[in-house]
Amino acid sequence: MKSTGKSVIAGNAAYVRPIDFKKGRVEMGHGGGGRMTMQLIDTLFLTAFDNDILRQMNDQACFSVPAGRMVMSTDSHVVSPLFFPGGDIGSLSVNGTINDVAMSGARPHYLSASFILEEGFPLSDLKRIVESMAKAAHSAGVPIITGDTKVVEKGKGDGVFITTTGVGSVPDGIHISSELARPGDKILLSGTLGDHGIAILSLRENLTFHTSVQSDTAALHELVASMIQAVPAIHVLRDPTRGGLATALNEIARQSGVGIKLREDKLPIHEQVRAACEFLGFDPLYVANEGKLIAICEPDLADKLLQTMQASPLGRDAAIIGEVIADPHCFVQMETIFGGQRVVDWLSGEQLPRIC
Amino acid sequence: MKYIDEFRDGTLAKKIASAIKNEVNPNRRYQLMEFCGGHTHAISRYGIPDLLPGNVRMIHGPGCPVCVLPVGRIENAIRLAQQPGVILCSYGDMLRVPTDHGMSLLKIKAQGADVRMVYSSIDAVRIAQENPQHQVVFFAIGFETTTPPTAIAIKQAQAMGLNNFTVFCNHVLTPPAISHILQSPEVRQLGWVPLDGFIGPAHVSTIIGSHPYEYFAEEFQKPVVIAGFEPLDVMQAILMLIQQINQGRADVENEFTRAVTREGNLKAQYLVAEVFELRRVFEWRGLGWVPYSALRIKAAFADFDAEKRFQIPALSIADHKACECGAILRGIKQPQDCKIFGTVCTPDNPVGSCMVSSEGACAAHYSYGRFRQTA
């Protein structure tokens, strides 16, 4: 979207053939920086994302910063399929980065969006994705204020890749970090596990199965704001995205130098997700989420935090799922529904189905 | 979840655990082998060892289909997949098994070979239909459970007149493997592996029935209890085995009555008999060459036999010197007895096959149970 000056379209009285968003496809020229790029920016990105800062059309976005600590996070989105039950790559790329910023306790202010488009990608799909991003950004109250578009030759991309970056600021007195988990702390989870991963898998070419599970993609910053207002002394927040709950907890355990003990009977998992995992041979602990968070706090604050989470629509199914323990090996362990113990290990490579 | 939760009920598990505790004779040890990887997985996944008395030990048997396939056959599959115009299809876990030089189907996929993970043999047939200009090879592996679907795939391909679909057959049989273990000097003469009883396979037995095990019970005087793959099935089977041992019985009992009959699935058996025949001998990782333990495609279906269509050399590749998979698969050693367990050999960089699949004894112990070593 980098360009200087006012829109060439608006400033030119001559007729310009409109972009065909019904049957048209992305061409190399859309990323060439010339008139085609400008037209795409004007009629699609600028119209959808419209805000005062973006409208200045500079190579950078200029804004004032509040006092205190700033937070910045970036995330690339390469999801396949691009459209899935409950969302699409557009809403995912907005919510995902907002959540990464919010997991520091920060209030997200602005986003940037960078597109890598593959030559031949249907413009109708691009429009649908951009409008979905705009809707997500608007409802989150976090505007997209700068961006970039590149086009790669056919065969060198997978339709569209989107990288979003977010900035935010942390309220005074809030110190949330994954190295702050302490033995005795309680671990809370904001809702059901694995919805996003199963919604995506149900559409994969070689696996197609029918499920009504929807992706849980959602911006969690409002939930976080209510949580830190109720319990400012939260130690850790983390969204268990790729690699699922198991991976996020292993990361926390390693960063904090502690062990973690989960209770399998406390884990909220959708019946349909459990069933899908059962026949695919997957473990829901490792399946991705896009609208859930893990919170860790001192034991005597846990009930208050839980009630606050449950009062929010995005934390309705929240539960206390375990506790932090002292363990030099930093194992994440789980008491199974059976009463036995097991390790909840790091994932090795990709999750592959078992044969038997 | 109906029909699942009932078999994972923690309260019931505690009741069976206390029945086991009451049944065991504290003055003896009970060494029980679960043959199947599915049982190994359930035992580790649900922490069943924590519910058993100290004198009951579970020995993980060789019933993990990925683990027992010899390296030579994997090397064959890799070379097949590297041929231009070939699409090689196989089941998930198989793609990760490394060869002696660290290659795997996943790695050659990254290098550009067309390797595809399928959930069903029929998916491979569909891929062949959709890619008439390619040779599609289904790398068929597994015990009696996965054999009937391979037979169906071959018959479907024949009915469709597909001339670009073949099967690289590596199907193996359970009873000869159990015989081989029971007849091994470690068990029979030297007594290194004291085996008091077997938990019989779940899914395999739905196909072959319970009668093939009657021979083991009789000839080797070892009780067999066929059990489902749910954790309560396993607990119940352990209790039934201990009862038999205490009563001096060696019978075949069926805990998995909801799916297994004495005769098994006759339709599946006929189908397998129509398409496959016994190989005189087949190499198993860990067990070596086991007579009449595997299947090959009958001459009538030679058009669908990858071993006939492609040049597939007979390769026999030894395991890594330090790898103890062989001894572990026979129950002689435990994963933690292996020098490279958890150091050089981990699920991320498996050296031996037992570390690849979560049904393998080493991966199950590493992923679910290694905290016990540090306790």
Strand content of chain A: 15-25%
Helix content of chain B: 25-40%
> How many whole angstroms does the radius of gyration of chain B measure?
21 Å
Uncertain residue segments of chain B: none
CATH C-level category of the largest domain in chain A: Alpha Beta
Low-confidence stretches of chain A: 3-8
Query: What is the ordering of alpha helices and beta strands of chain A?
Result: HHEEEHEHEEEHHEHEHEHEEE
CATH topology label of chain B: Rossmann fold
Oligomer: heterodimer
Query: How many helical stretches of chain B?
Result: 17
| Helix and strand pattern of chain B | HEHEHHEHEHEHEHHEHHEHEHEEEEHHHH
What attributes characterize this protein structure?
heterodimer; A: 356 residues; alpha+beta; 60s Ribosomal Protein L30, Chain: A; Phosphoribosyl-aminoimidazole Synthetase, Chain A, domain 2; 2 domains; seven-stranded mixed β-sheet; four-stranded mixed β-sheet; 13 strands; 21% strand; globular; disordered N terminus; B: 375 residues; alpha/beta; Rossmann fold; five-stranded parallel β-sheet; four-stranded parallel β-sheet; 17 helices; 38% helix
What can you tell me about this protein's structure?
The complex is a heterodimer of chains A (356) and B (375). Chain A is 28% helix and 21% strand. Chain A has 356 residues and is α+β, with helices and mostly antiparallel strands. In chain A, the strands form three sheets. A seven-stranded mixed beta sheet of chain A has the order 8-10-7-11-9-12-13. In chain A, strands 1-6-4-5 form a four-stranded mixed beta sheet. In chain A, a hairpin with a 5-residue loop joins strand 12 (332-335) and strand 13 (341-343). In chain A, helix 1 runs parallel beside helix 4 (123-140). The longest helix of chain A has 18 residues, at 123-140. Chain A is globular, with a radius of gyration of 22 Å. The model of chain A is unreliable at 3-8 (pLDDT under 50). The model of chain B has no long low-confidence stretch (mean pLDDT 92). Chain B has helices at residues 10-23, 37-45, 65-68, 71-81, 105-110, 121-130, 147-160, 174-183, 185-188, 203-208, 214-220, 231-246, 266-275, 306-309, 325-329, 361-369, 371-374; strands at residues 30-36, 56-63, 86-90, 114-117, 135-142, 165-171, 197-200, 224-226, 252-254, 276-278, 281-284, 288-291, 295-297. In chain B, helix 6 runs parallel beside helix 7 (147-160). Chain B has 17 helices and 13 strands. Chain B has a single domain, classed as HypD, alpha/beta domain 2 (Rossmann fold), CATH 3.40.50.11740. In chain B, the strands form four sheets. A five-stranded parallel beta sheet of chain B has the order 2-1-7-8-9, sandwiched between helices. A four-stranded parallel beta sheet of chain B has the order 4-3-5-6, with helices on both faces. Classes of the chains: A alpha+beta (356), B alpha/beta (375). At the A-B interface, helix 8 and strand 13 of A face helix 1, helix 2 and helix 16 of B.
